Amino acid sequence: MVTEPKSEIRCGAMSRRIEIELTSLRDDGSWTWRAAGAREPRGVVESMMVPSGAKVGEVLRAEIEADLDGNRVLSVSALKAKNERTGLLQILPSDKPFQPVTEQPARRDRRGGDKRGGDRRDGDRRGRSGPRSDRGPRGDRPPKGERNERAGGPEREPRPDRPRRAFSEPPPELPTRPKPKRVRAHREHVDAVLSELPEAQRTIAEKVLAGGLPAVRTAIEAQNRQNVAEGKEKIPAEGLLTLAENLLPRLRIAEWRDRAVAAESIISDVDIRDLRQIVVTAAQLVAPDEDTRALVARMQAALATRQEVETKNWLDDIAAATGVGRIVRALRMSSQPPKAGVRFPPMLATQLANATSAGLSSEAPADRWSALLEAAAFSPIRTLVAPVSVPSPVPDTVMATVTRLAPLMPQVAALFGVAPDPAAKTPRPLQPPRPDRTKASDTTGRADSGKTGQKRRPAERSPGARGERGKPRRDPVSVKGAPAKSMPTESPSPEAPTSPQAPTEVGPTSPERPTSPERPTEMAPPPQPVAPMDSAG
């Protein structure tokens, strides 16, 4: 039996090049080495691989290979010498002394010329070296009164005197109340609940906080679709949904307490909308503990107090705006009470209705009529408005406004001979126009090139904006000859009292209405129904 000699089997390893430093020379002629500037790796290299003339501390380039026995040096070579940079330019210093240079610009007169000596008319203004000889002598100019007379032409008629525009001082500005603070809830109670749960249940709890049980079902369905595509088994959904249902009441209580604690820290300045939402949500909590029930009671008491304060501020702001002649502002504030179903005071209603009726006269401009009618149609005193006189002729914009608002103000429509349609829908307040965000450069470029500009998108409505009866706002009823869909602005009232008595102190505006009624903000609250005033008060 013949056996072949066993050959050494080596695992394939990749070599790499590093710089090594020779540390010592051993008695057998071999050298010890280590990685240049480090302790590892290190090893021994045979003297035949080291270049002649090597010494301790010299750095060489080596190709090593690491295997099970350690590091083995395959080859060693000297480092390449760095090439010196050649072809550089040498900066030679100058032997001349340095002389600083100063610059002083020439002064120019107001006409844009310079102060050169001599008469510029006789100089080389246009590049000529001598005086101009192509123009004859300039004669004496006639007097100022005779300059406009042309020889043989008709005489200019004297300019007629233009009538001066009637000047009326604008109503004084009213102090604005500070903007209410919105609730910024932290996650103290939610994080405390999550920390008590096992690691496997925290993911489900996060899904419950994000979207409730529907979010958990969606996540399970997505995971099952992925498992089916990969050939894995589906996740049982019944157990996970049961776990989510058990965690939901506890998480909702923790989430509600975070919002309530944040609102309690700013209870005097919190937005009444957030406070009302917190109180309404408290009725949906399941099995609250003693501390949560006490917090609910404090939130309910705070809401009742804030509603009384905001109602008083609301009425004070309406009275102050009416007293200084800002009738449109007072009408818009009257349609936005801090609490639904608030009874409008009869005395204030009579005062506001009389001021509105005085502004609707034949001397008032068309935009004033449109602004007052649009604001009064959605206020609780709309049935008390009686214009003093009707303009003659009636402007088209005023007639279109009266026709659109006829279902809300039939007594005003009767003065213009308009009969409201019983089947017509109740009109909605006009939406303020959105600013045109098209760049001016793009518009100019399109106009120069002869192309029409980009079409403007219609004004989008706020998703939370609602009209009366809590329904979403719709487009106003289209009427032939109606003005553009824009909110009329308030102009100076000609019937403003001569000596208004403005209040010395006016508190903050109600959080339920925008700070400036003439220019509502994007987050303007929806107008809430107010108990309307009948003719008997």
Put the structure in a nutshell.
With 537 residues, this protein is an alpha+beta fold. It has helices at residues 188-196, 199-230, 237-265, 272-282, 290-323, 327-334, 346-359, 366-376, 396-404, 410-415, 440-448, and strands at residues 15-25, 31-35, 42-45, 59-67, 70-78. The protein has a 5-stranded antiparallel β-sheet with strand order 3-2-1-4-5, with no helix packed on it.
Structure, described:
- With 537 residues, the chain is α+β, with helices and mostly antiparallel strands.
- The chain has helices spanning 188-196, 199-230, 237-265, 272-282, 290-323, 327-334, 346-359, 366-376, 396-404, 410-415, 440-448; strands at 15-25, 31-35, 42-45, 59-67, 70-78.
- A hairpin with a 2-residue loop joins strand 4 (59-67) and strand 5.
- The longest helix has 34 residues, at 290-323.
Secondary-structure blueprint of this entry?
Layout: E1 15-25, E2 31-35, E3 42-45, E4 59-67, E5 70-78, H1 188-196, H2 199-230, H3 237-265, H4 272-282, H5 290-323, H6 327-334, H7 346-359, H8 366-376, H9 396-404, H10 410-415, H11 440-448
Antiparallel strand pairs: 1-2, 1-4, 2-3, 4-5
Low-confidence segments: 1-9, 122-126, 443-526
Counting helices, strands and paired strands, the structural category is alpha+beta
Overall pLDDT confidence: 75
Number of contiguous helices: 11
Q: Quick one: how many beta strands?
A: 5
Strand content: 5-15%
Q: Helix proportion of residues, in percent?
A: 25-40%
Oligomer: single chain
Order of helices and strands, N to C? EEEEEHHHHHHHHHHH
How would a crystallographer describe the biggest sheet?
5 strands, antiparallel
